[in-house]
Structures are given as C-alpha cells and as structure tokens.
Amino acid sequence: MKFNAKTLNPKTHRTACIIAGVYSDGHSNNSLSSSAAKINEASNGMISEIIKSGDMKGKAGQTLMLRKVSGIKADRVLLVGCGEKDKLDTAGYFKIIRSAFAALKQVEAKDATCCLPEIAVTKRDYPWRVQQAVRVAGETYYKFDALKSGKKTKSIMATITMAAATKAEMTKGVIAAKQGEAIINGMHLSRDLANLPGNYCTPTYIADQGKELAKKFPSIKATVLSETAMEKLGMGSLLSVSRGSAEPAKLLVLKYEGLKKSAKNQKPYVLVGKGVTFDSGGISLKPGGGMDEMKYDMCGAASVIGTIAAIAEMKLPINLNVIVPTVENMPGSKATKPGDIVTSMSGQTIEVLNTDAEGRLILCDALTYAERFKPEAVIDVATLTGACVVALGKVPTGLISNDDGLADDLLAAGETSHDRAWRMPLWEDYQSLLDSNFADIANIGGRDGGMITAGCFLSRFTKKLTWAHLDIAGTAWHSGKSKGATGRPVSMLVQYLMDRV
Ligand code: BES
Ligand code: MN
Ligand code: ZN
Fold first, then answer.
1. 408 has pLDDT over 80
2. Residues linked to residue 3 through DSSP beta bridges, in sequence order
3. CB within 8 Å of 252: residues ≥ 6 apart
4. N or C: which end of the chain has fewer CB within 10 A?
C-alpha cells in the first residue's frame, strides 16, 4: 500500500472512494467540512439531504458509505462524523480516522482519497494529521496470515491519497505521508515478529532478522553475541534464564548512524528490548490457561527492531543503538531453580526466588552492556509484569524513569502519537522489598506494586545512565477474538526520536 498527498478538487477527482467529514452542528450547512460542501454542491445538495434525513448525525466516528453520488467522479463517498466543529482533540481525531478506515476496509476499493486531514484538531497541524491518518490506515489493513495454508486473500487497496488544500500543504503532506509510511513499515515488522509463534521465532531467528535488517538498510550494522561471548562478558544473569532451553541465547546489537561525519561522535540513544521468545515461567511454571500468549514475551524486542527500521527508512539524523537480549525461558534439568544465586555483568549477585521473573534478569545485563555506548539516554521496553496490567489496564504503557526530563519527553511523545504512557514512582521506599538474605538483591519484591518493584530492580543496574523503562505487558498485544500484536510502542518511540532532531 502506498500513500501520498495532493491538492485536488472533490468534484472532478477520480477515485474509488472519497472520504469527507461531517460535523454534528445541526441541520445546516455548518455541518459540512470544506470537501463535503464541495461534494454537496456538485450533487445538488445530496449531502445536506442525508443530514436532514437524520441518517448522518455527524457524531464522531459515525460513518455512512454512499455509491454513485451524482455530479462527482468518485465511485463512492464515505461520510465520516467529526463531532462538533473546532472541538476535535487528538483522541477524537484518532476515533474518526479509525472508524473511517474500518469502514473503507469493508468495500472493494483499489484506491481512496482521504480529506479528513483538513479537519481542525486542537494543537495539531496539517502534517501531523496526515502522518497519523497514514499510520492508522496502515494499521487497519495489517493482516498476519503467513502460517495459514490455502488461498490467501489480499486486500486490493493500493494507494491512499491525503487531500491538501494548498501547494504548500501538499509539500509538507508528502513528507508527513512518507514518515507515516516508515512508521507503518516499522510497526508491521514488529507485529510480524511478535505474531510468529515460539517454534518459529526463536532467539536465533530474532538475531537473524537483525542481520537481515542490516542487509536491507546499509545505515544499520548488526552484531550478534553468542553464549560464549556473553559468558566472557560475565552475563551470568542473562544466561541463567536460558539454561533450561535447548535454544541458545543471543544478544543482538544494531547500530544506526544517521549523522554526518562531523557529528558522528554525538552520543547515541539506546533502546533495549526484552526478547523472551517464549516464557513458560521456567521451574516456577506458569498455569496452562492462556499460556500461548507468552509467545508475545518478545514484543519489547520486536518494538525496538521496528523502531530502528522506521528511523533508518526515514534517514533520521541521529545515532541510535538497539540491544536485544533474547532467550527462551523453559524448565529443564539444567534450568535455574528458585533459590539459585547468579552473578550479573555488573558484579551484583541476584537470588532468583522466582524463575518467572526472568525479564529483569536478561534486561539487567543488557543495560550494563549499554554503558559502553556512553548513551545520551537508554530506554528499555519489556512485557515485564502482569502487575502493570492490573494497575493500568490495557490503555497506557507503564513508564518508570530515573530522570524527569526523559520521562516528560516520553510522555509527550506518547501524547503526540496517541500511543500513551503513564508514569509510576521510583521511590526509595520500595527498594527494600528486593532485599535478599543471601545475595545482593532478590529478583522479586512480592505481590504489591509489582510493576514498581520490577522497575526498582532495573534501577539497580542503571545508576550510571539516564534511563527509562516502558512496561508494555498491557499494550503490546490484544487477547481474545482479535488476538494479535499491536505494534506498540513503535510510534511513541519513533515520535520521541523525531522530537530529538
Ligand atoms: N512475561 C511476564 C509478564 C506478563 C504476564 C506479561 C502476563 C503479560 C501478561 C513476566 O516474565 C512474568 O512472568 N512476570 C511475573 C513476575 C512475578 C513472578 C514477580 C508476573 O507478572 O507474574
Ligand atoms: Mn515470566
Ligand atoms: Zn516474561
């Protein structure tokens, strides 16, 4: 699917479907957006008539698909309710574009023209409205059927054009559409990796995907550390997690240099993604119900890989490193046992009281490894705790940070991309919950405040870093009938990095 932006006349423009907004401001011409007004005029008042009939009330997210509207060249008109004029906020805009593309997907159209970026949104400009519309369109058409046999039905949708009011808007819109497309490609890569089950997506597979990405983008260099290399570095905590698995652990490192030679020594941003390709819990085995969803325990890895792919496609002028510790957490005769004490790369010893709290055990060594890059900031992304889902539900990603500036920047990027996070405290008061009688630190802090104590654990390994932790346990995938990876928080991370240039 391709995207672009163009100035056009809704009356004469040829397209399989033109998408135009309608406000809820009553039965007058007030309720027509600028392009809806043009379609109305060309069709001798057909849109006004529909509004009068009550079939389209303009409520945000309401849609009405029309065919063969007279006086225009488009095959279909999709009317989309936009709520009260000039009252639309970021969340409202996402609501209208999501319902618009969901309705568009229902019909067999090979192209479409979307006029919704003309709708005013509080605090958001035209390029933002284009970029988000492109992203939502891409998200809507995503499908994962790689492992279904038989005939695959592919959508015929080929091009979606975003309408621009002026030539100047068009120039900006083309750039914004390209950026949106890069984000979509990154999200698709992330979702594909995440949706692949554990028997396909092993640590070795993730490492190989990293190498593939480096082949696709010459600006990315890939390195893969083997278990032997990790042993030499003293990553005893990371390696303890995969002891029970036949699959060898890997540490994938991707380096993107987007800066010209003169600025090459600018400090990199570092993203660390939890890559547990299957989390059975290990000897502290999880209960059977819904255990299949633990194939998603590598969504942190998938999201940071998707992010660096998007950044490379955009050719963003920054330096970015991605570190992916990847393992399979299984019970086995060599598996780590509750009570075992392991030594991390930082030198701190850890009492493994629960082998199911494995994410922090691989992240702590990856975070220590991140120090060597002298990073500007380090952000780890992980499906880390069920407690995060209990605390925040499935709406925001959980955020913990040792730096207010970094935390605020991430929260702001989450608002802009509507891929939001919510910050939890990292107060000293929680730290003693991790006390161990036999080692420097225990890997669990009890039931209460589970997301925070997991963050406290990581904070013991990030004292030298400007660091933030994103717990995506509630946001990385959907359960139930529409089970599947969401691609979050790729758009938040890309926005954060775009905001840095
Ligand atoms: N991968 C899980 C966290 C998880 C659970 C994410 C459910 C999404 C849904 C993690 O490795 C884990 O098992 N965490 C434990 C920690 C506990 C043992 C302290 C948890 O949350 O129960
Ligand atoms: Mn676990
Ligand atoms: Zn896990």
1. yes
2. 160
3. 206, 207, 210, 222, 223, 224, 225, 275, 301, 322, 323, 324, 326
4. C
Question: Which tokens belong to 237?
Answer: 């905590």
Q: With helix as H, strand as E and coil as C, how does 16-35 read?
A: CCEEEEECCCCCCHHHECHH
User: What is the pTM for the complete model shown?
Assistant: 0.98
Best substitution site from 330, 351, 356 to test ligand 1's pocket, by max atoms within 8 Å of Cβ?
356
Q: Which amino acid is at 461?
A: F
Strand ranges across the sheet with 2-7: 2-7, 159-164, 111-114, 18-22, 76-81, 63-67
Query: In which element (H, E) is residue 352 found?
Result: none
Protein residue closest via CA to atom 17 of ligand 1: 357
- What pLDDT, on a 0 to 100 scale, did the predictor assign at position 28? 59
Contact present, 307 and 493 (Cβ < 8 Å): yes
Please count the residues of the chain.
501
Distance, in Å, from the CA atom of 42 to the CA atom of 38, rounded to the nearest integer, reads: 6
For the chain, the first-to-last Cα distance in angstroms comes to: 28
DSSP assigned state of 123: T
| Cα 496-449-356 angle, rounded to 5 deg | 85
Give strand ranges (E) for 353-479: 377-382, 397-401, 421-423, 441-442, 467-471, 477-478
The string of pLDDT tens digits covering residues 309-318 is: 999 999 999 9
Which atom in ligand 1 lies closest to the alpha carbon of residue 387? Answer: 21
Residues with CB under 6 A from ligand 1: 279, 297, 354, 356-359, 383-387, 389, 444, 450, 473
Give distance in angstroms: CA of 126 to centre of ligand 1.
41
User: DSSP 3-state assignment of 222?
Assistant: strand
Please list, in sequence order, all residues whose beta carbon lies within 8 angstroms of the beta carbon of residue 20, skipping any fewer than 6 positions away. Answer: 10, 33, 35, 36, 39, 77, 78, 79, 80, 115, 116
Helix (H) or strand (E) holding 269: strand 269-273
Residue 27 has pLDDT above 60, yes or no: no
Q: Let me know the angle formed at the C-alpha of 244 by 241 and 248, rounded to the nearest 5 degrees.
A: 75
3-state secondary structure 308-323: HHHHHHHCCCCEEEEE
Q: How far apart are CA 408 and CA 412, in angstroms?
A: 6
**Residues annotated as part of the active site:** 286, 360
CA 286, distance to chain mean position in Å, is 26
Q: Quickly tell me which residue has 């004292």 as its tokens.
A: 463
